[in-house]
Amino acid sequence: MTRALLTVLTAATLTFASTSQAAGLVRAPYVQDVRTDSALIAFRLDASCADATVSYGPADGAQDRTARSTGSGTQHGVRLPALASAKAYRYSVSACGATSAPKTFTTASGPESRRVHFVAMGDFGTGAKDQRAVAAAMTAAKPELWLGLGDNAYQDGTESEFQRNYFEPMAEFISQVPAYLVLGNHDYLTQQGQPQIDAFYMPSNNPRGTERYYSFNWGPVHFVGLDSQCYQGWTTTPECKPAEQKAWLEADLAANAQPWTVVFMHHPPYSTGDHGNNTRLNDLLPIFEAHRVDMVLGGHDHDYERMYPLRGGKVSTADQGG
Q1: Which of 303, 238, 317, 241 is closest to 272 using CA atoms?
Q2: Strands annotated E in the chain
Q3: Residue 60: Cβ-neighbour burial (10 angstroms; 0-12, 13-18, 19+)
Q4: Whole-angstrom Cα distance, residue 197 to residue 212?
Q5: How far apart are CA 279 and CA 269, in angstroms?
Q6: What phi, psi does 281 have (nearest 5°)?
Q7: What is the pTM of this model?
Q8: What is the distance between the alpha carbons of residues 248 and 206, in angstroms, rounded to a whole number?
Q9: pLDDT tens digits, residue range 128-145?
Q10: Is the dihedral of CA 238, 243, 244, 248 positive or negative?
Q11: What is each CA distance from 36 to 83, 107, 181, 313, in whole angstroms?
Q12: Given its phi and psi angles, is residue 127 left (phi above 0), alpha (psi -120 to 50 degrees) or beta?
């Protein structure tokens, strides 16, 4: 399924009808690609609809503004424009008889902000009760955004697994907090990760215009999401070119003016877990070090680890410029 990023619309491989019909929400609204001045509300219907709208307004005021999808289909992504930075908004969806309960989200803060509150989670997409409990805890924590570190829908990253193991158990959380996801090895097992690409609206600020790796700013932090599966040696998608991603990463970090930098990807370069250190990522480590990346987050090993800052594979101290 192909679709233009940041447009109000969607998707060439969906089944379109010439006229709208009564529809129900099979994928509740979820917040995507939130910026300082806009946000995208995505949702999926069980019938084609040409009259899909999002009503919205400040969380402490009336929902007196409307944004409309410009096409007919079952999958919709509606951009809400002209928002204010770091402000809470309430929204609800209306589409061919389907309606959603009001939800709230907060727009991104700008570089003048001195803090950002985010959460990260990886290897979670089983749909099991533990995942639901963690999602409830993250909702209660009220983060501004969250990072999905890959293996977002077990076992094989199929469309039905994303529905069952991601969208249903995470519905309340993702209706309020925008997700920024990267691909894991399990997500790659179906069409090289295409179901994930189709379902989400990630940034695509790289030369190929792909959503497989990207960067964005939120408050004082520059976030960089990488496709680490691209370095593991068994992917075939033309968008997965390790040398291209590496060159883009170097240019992106060189242009970064934010005081903090966080890189996130599925495979950790260093790990004491079952998978161990991932030497296929060694080419990226000098780039992280040269551009003083503050934090690298990964999943893949199903444990929790944190470590001292490293430089050249060794513990780095402040007087070493680490």
Answers
A1: 303
A2: 25-32, 39-49, 52-58, 65-68, 73-80, 88-95, 98-99, 103-106, 118-121, 145-148, 179-181, 214-218, 221-225, 260-264, 295-297, 310-311, 314-315
A3: exposed
A4: 8
A5: 7
A6: -95, 10
A7: 0.90
A8: 7
A9: 999 999 999 999 999 999
A10: positive
A11: 7, 5, 19, 37
A12: left
Taking only the tens place, the pLDDT of each residue in 162-175 is: 999 999 999 999 99
Q: Which residue has the tokens 């934090």?
A: 295
* Strand intervals (E) in 100-225: 103-106, 118-121, 145-148, 179-181, 214-218, 221-225
Residue of 249, 212, 225, 242 lying closest to 297 (CA atoms): 225
Q: Quick: pLDDT tens for 60-70.
A: 999 999 999 98
Burial of 45 from C-beta contacts in 10 A (0-12 / 13-18 / 19+): buried
Average pLDDT, the chain: 91
Q: Return d(Cα 121, Cα 131) in angstroms, integer.
A: 10
Distance CA 87, CA 275 (A): 42
Residue with tokens 């250190």: 277
Q: Across-strand partners of 295?
A: 262
